[in-house]
Design goal:
Strand content: 15-25%
Largest sheet: 9 strands, mixed
Number of helices: 23
Length: 704
């Protein structure tokens, strides 16, 4: 009997073997920063080697075909190196950072409509010129503009130009343990600096300079504003309902309530309010159905594909063109092209092709959380949805549809869970229930929202459609908030590292492959990985139980200090940071998760406090938040650490007169200009000091 062989999926998806070396090159270039000359030489060398094989005799082609494959892989690695080097704006000779110094004027174009923030107006700026030595030098590069609320900035529009010579600030991370790497995120957008402009710091340019507006971008901004105006006019059931409708329809999230967003995140349906591939899929289905009903268009497949793809890409750009939306747009473009030419491509190959194209366009998408989760979710659905769905057979049609939705959600969650735990340190325990509720409701809201826009000119219809959208959004919000308030709705504060995430993937893939393929080797692999995972957790837990730390956080305008002992911590600082909310979650919570300090305690072993004097194990700490009274006795208090906080009126000379200290730490509740003065005084006194706004959070290990 003839033996049957399984054809590996990568044989039908050749682009996977092209995608992996490209990703390798991108990662190498970002972390190693190889010079351009080396990259060009390697690309030419490997490219020449690859094409040289076509000139060889046939016998040598066959014998050396593996070497040709290696040459192709290395050429793609070099391609990854090059596109990553090229995407780094700092490698561009025309980047403004190569010309600008602190005392020079910048000509900056407003590159988007201003967004109102609690304390300022924000906009993306594009530097067009630097005034240097009496000359105007044309240049390029993006920066973030913040305008004070007392300025005339709201009068600025997209395309307007301003000139200023305010000192730019380099974008830096807070340095808080476990915090979001904002500096890298901004660098991936090509943004290295920001500037805060008060009224009088800038001037709008009118003479000799015309407003330089890109017509297409202007159309997109006007279209977004039109959609927002229609929604605001017709949805009057409440602010939360209006804001969710804006997020669902065009991805406008500026006005969303932070607690409501957290509720959606906790319940596993935050993808509902972040425009993603799901929304684009719904739009695609609607367009296919619509154009199949229109005479003439339904008979012209080419015209139908062009119109559908044009609408999809317009929607993608209108919603902000996030990585997950672009992934879906590229995927649907390939699907439409395949249908047009009567070809059924492998879904794995389509995924690999779309990823290849997007990474060639922007290699930094590789680090984008939306990009990662989007591909993992689709891959999970493709691999696991059918096996999960076929676990049960339900005769009732309604129950069968519900189980189908559950199987899709479970399959997507299976491969996205490790990454979600790594980035967000939580797992939504009730994600299946919330998806059964939120996915159908959000789909109906999206379609009703599109209908509202289509009939916005007919007041009678738009009025009732607005009422319907508001009511459905209210129902979805209430359902999510009710589930979020259940004590067991979310498993929170889960520590994770890159290594633990990788091992978790091996466990999931191993057990899944064993259940699907019935191969004991996968079970053995998963079991061994699970054992390693448990040993690693036990060892990490033992290390945490022994830790003793002092953490002074970098929270602008606030005092924030944690004393950590094992899994417990004691907080000293502003009351605003003691309350559960975005301020605490953003600045303090990541550090506590990072060090696995899970429980706040009023009493720590080895900790004593006397007003602003603290003893922790073998460390003496003083928090100076007030002017020091002159002491004529000449007796100094020994302190391992002096933390200057709350902008007290004092000099470093008075501090060194009172305290014999190893280090003075200036926390972020002090203004930067005052810290700079204190640093100069410390330099004269030869006193070691540490500026938290400049260097990030201060973390000190306490020896037991």
């Amino acid at each position: 009997m003839q033996r049957l062989y399984d054809i590996p999926f990568w044989k039908n998806a050749p682009f996977i073997r092209l995608l992996l070396p490209l990703i390798t090159g991108i990662i190498i270039q970002w972390y190693c920063k190889l010079p351009l000359a080396f990259i060009i030489v390697t690309f030419i060398s490997f490219g020449f080697s690859f094409f040289l094989f076509f000139l060889l005799p046939r016998i040598f082609k066959f014998r050396l075909r593996s070497l040709q494959g290696v040459a192709l892989q290395l050429m793609l690695v070099s391609l990854g190196l090059f596109i990553t080097w090229q995407k780094n704006i700092r490698n561009n000779k025309e980047w403004y950072g190569n010309f600008y110094h602190n005392d020079e004027y910048l000509l900056v174009r407003i590159d988007e409509p201003l967004t109102e923030k609690p304390k300022s107006f924000k906009a993306d700026g594009y530097v067009e010129a630097v005034a240097k030595d009496g000359k105007t030098i044309s240049c390029k590069g993006k920066l973030l503009l913040y305008f004070s609320k007392d300025s005339t900035a709201p009068a600025l529009n997209y395309g307007d130009k301003i000139i200023f010579n305010k000192k730019l600030q380099s974008i830096k991370n807070s340095g808080n343990p476990g915090s979001f790497n904002y500096e890298r995120y901004a660098a991936f957008q090509g943004i290295m600096h920001n500037v805060f402009l008060k009224n009088g710091d800038w001037q709008k340019v009118t003479a000799n300079y015309l407003s330089s507006k890109n017509s297409f971008r202007q159309f997109i901004f006007l279209a977004r504003q039109y959609v927002l105006d229609v929604l605001e006019k017709n949805i009057s059931s409440g602010k939360d309902q209006l804001d969710i409708a804006k997020a669902l329809l065009i991805g406008y999230t500026n006005d969303l309530d932070k607690d409501l967003v957290q509720a959606y995140s906790n319940t596993g349906v935050v993808h509902i309010i972040a425009i993603s591939g799901m929304h684009l899929g719904l739009i695609y289905i609607m367009l296919v159905w619509l154009f199949a009903k229109i005479p003439f268009i339904n008979k012209n497949k080419l015209l139908q594909a062009i119109i559908i793809l044009s609408c999809l890409w317009l929607f993608s750009i209108l919603t902000g063109a996030s990585a997950s939306v672009l992934r879906a747009a590229v995927m649907f473009s390939f699907i439409s092209a395949g249908k047009l030419f009567f070809k059924n491509a492998s879904i794995y190959n389509s995924l690999a092709v779309s990823a290849f194209v997007l990474l060639c366009y922007n290699p930094y998408y590789l680090w984008d959380v939306g990009f990662q989760l989007s591909y993992l979710a689709v891959l999970g659905i493709v691999v696991f949805q059918k096996p999960i769905y076929h676990l049960f057979y339900l005769k009732n049609n309604l129950l069968d549809k519900a189980w189908l939705l559950v199987s899709v959600s479970a399959a997507a969650q299976l491969l996205t869970t490790p990454v979600c735990i790594y980035y967000f340190h939580q797992f939504p325990n009730l994600f299946m229930i919330t998806n059964i509720i939120a996915v159908p409701l959000s789909s109906i809201i999206l379609y009703m929202g599109v209908a509202l826009l289509a009939f916005s000119g007919i007041s009678f219809i738009s009025f009732y459609l607005g009422k319907l959208v508001g009511a459905l959004t209210w129902l979805m919000n209430k359902s999510i908030l009710w589930i979020n308030n259940l004590s067991f709705s979310v498993w929170d504060k889960i520590p994770a590292t890159v290594l633990s995430t990788c091992i978790l993937y091996v466990i999931i893939i191993g057990f899944s492959a064993w259940l699907i393929k019935k191969d004991k080797r996968y079970f053995s692999l998963a079991l061994c990985s699970l054992f390693v995972f448990m040993v690693m957790l036990l060892f990490n837990n033992w290390q945490v139980s022994k830790q003793q730390k002092i953490i002074v956080y970098n929270v602008a305008g606030h005092q924030a200090i944690d004393f950590v002992s094992g899994h417990q911590y004691m907080f000293i600082g502003d009351s605003a940071l003691m309350q559960e909310g975005m301020l605490q979650n953003f600045h303090l919570k990541p550090g506590r998760i990072f060090f696995q300090a899970k429980k706040q305690s009023a009493v720590l072993e080895g900790f004593k406090a006397n007003e602003n004097y603290f003893n922790f194990k073998n460390k003496k700490i003083v928090v100076v938040a007030y002017p020091l009274v002159a002491d004529t006795s000449g007796v100094k208090f020994d302190a391992d650490l002096v933390i200057v906080s709350k902008n007290p009126q004092l000099s470093m000379e008075s501090v060194t007169r009172h305290f014999n200290t190893k280090l003075i730490v200036f926390d972020a509740s002090n203004p930067v200009w005052k810290i700079e003065q204190w640093q100069q005084q410390c330099s004269i006194l030869k006193q070691p000091c540490y500026s938290i706004p400049e260097n990030g959070a201060f973390v000190c290990d306490v020896e037991m």
